[in-house]
Amino acid sequence: MVQAKQIFPLFFMVFLWSSICGLAQENRSLGDDYFFQYEYQNAVTAYEADLAKGTLTLKQYLNLADAYYKTNNFEKASEAYLQLYKRDTLLGNHHFNKMLQSLARTSDNNRMQEFLATKSSNFEKEFLENLEFNAQLLDNSSASDQLDFQIFNLNGNSPQSDFSPSFYGGKLLFSSGRSQDKKRRYRPSGEGFLNIYEGTLQPTGQVSSAVPFTEIPTSNFHKATPFYSERLQSIFYVLSNTLNGELSFDENGKNALAVGMQKKNGPFQLLLKDLSTSFYYPFYDEQSEKLYFSANFEDGYGGTDIYYVHTNRGQIMSAPINLGPRINSPGNEIAPYVFENSFYFSSDVFYGLGGMDIYKSNMEGDSYSIPINLGSEINSSADDFGLIIRNHGEGLLGYFSSNRPGGKGNDDLYGFTVDEKPGLRTLTMKGQVTKSNNGSELIDQAVIRLLDLEGNLLAETYSDDKGSYRLEIPWEKGVVLESTKERFSVVRQNLTEEDLTALEGQDFDIPLAPYDDLVEKKEEQTVVKLKDFYFNRGQTELTDAITAELDKVVSFVKDFPAVQLRIETYTDSRGGNSTNFRLTQGRSDAIKRYLISKGVPNSTILYSIGYGEDKILNNCTNGVFCLEVLHKQNQRSLIVVLNDNVLFN
Predict the structure, then answer these.
(1) What is the pLDDT of residues 215-235, one digit of tens each?
(2) Who's near 282: CB < 8 A, 6+ residues apart?
(3) DSSP for residue 358
């Protein structure tokens, strides 16, 4: 889509003038006039002449770097950006992205990585996660993971730029630079002003009979990037700002693009207009009633970002809302499209396969998953953008635009069929970390890790203040999930491919045992917290009530396998001393046998001791009359944690 960049600022034409301030009148260059009218090749010639004379300002040198970039002279662009980078003056994140993109286009990847490392702290956390994830995803993708795309060039393409397809019932709408009026040309591209065309869809997916679309108001200037809403029976599109039939400009001489809505057999409404801001690629989501679009507002994350506004049947009801750093990058993002809860868009962020690549993000309420590059099956080393898709027979039919080699013009329309939704498969683990003894209590700052089957770390995160966590990695056929927090148990679970497939789209909550909730202080010792239980008088057999409490000890040891235990049993003063010693020893031994039978390692229980009536807790000693309830206070068994003081060191 590099040629399309030269047509008009519809795709990632970032208006630099406002971000770098106006030039002083005495430093005005002919290159400035060309640059801000998007005539980049003429701007290069004029700026280079000023550079040779030594009259080029730093701001104009930045324009020259951008003009090199726009005309695909990436070697000169990278060198110019590098010179500006050394001065550390004008090179913000957006231009830094262009520098890295230029280095990538000249196969200087090592140099690109070096510069990225120097500035990584300047980027949003989400952007760095996106970068790492996509690098891993593209490196790990194999032929077996790839879908069988059947891609075909449309017969209706022209020698000019054809792009931005949109479904219109049994037809396809698209934008084209083909000219019907040879006298009216858009000077930067040499082509005609953009217009919207329609073609009839054939059963094969091909498009025939491309003719101008006549159901929108006529204009001598740009009309492009249509989207048709069947529910609203309306067409959204962008158009040049005009006044009394002529182009209107802001104070800096810029003509921007507005968004309009034409209702079928109804009135036209101008929805988004700002003389200094261009709006591109409107998309109306009929389910949420959000109107998505791209714009180059100054407060974005890079060049052109994706925004949305809330609407009431297309009527705007809110200020523009930026989709945030999970979607928007230091580069340019355009062409939003929603299909079956997946958000598709295009970006020229430097870590892609080419200039502009197509990405997919899963929509999760008001949030988005890490956008993934659709991979080499559909993206190329050229510019690929503007994907649309819908169900077709037993598979899917879609279209996109590209300036890849072998086309008929500058940008061409391509169709494709595929059996499944495009996008390399990923694995998402999400849910909440809770207390195992009370699932309504959430745990923050718990670490959650995913490891491969060889034990290598794949991803790591921490639960937030609501106990929620989310991890996303390229698809694995099996993983190990680990989670813990200081003074909590360690969860380690192997998940097979079958387990992972069943979990797709589902929450996976992680229960952690809270050590401090499961122990207590008794008789100046740390013991496992249990309800009081009693043996039958003179007996050592375990009752159901006793085993129910001992099962808590079994769970405690499973959660904290490093604990070392001592079983202590006591009785009251009734009976002889030697009898009471034998009785309590028998009870301690019975408890030990039960715990071992339930899986507690023998090495965990260091001692099982019967103390008889040695430690009476009250005055019910030999010869003293006491009520039964007072004698029961002395009948007790304790499970003592011997290494409590060093367990978490």
Answers:
(1) 999 988 999 999 999 999 999
(2) 225, 227, 236, 237, 238, 259, 271, 291, 292, 293
(3) E
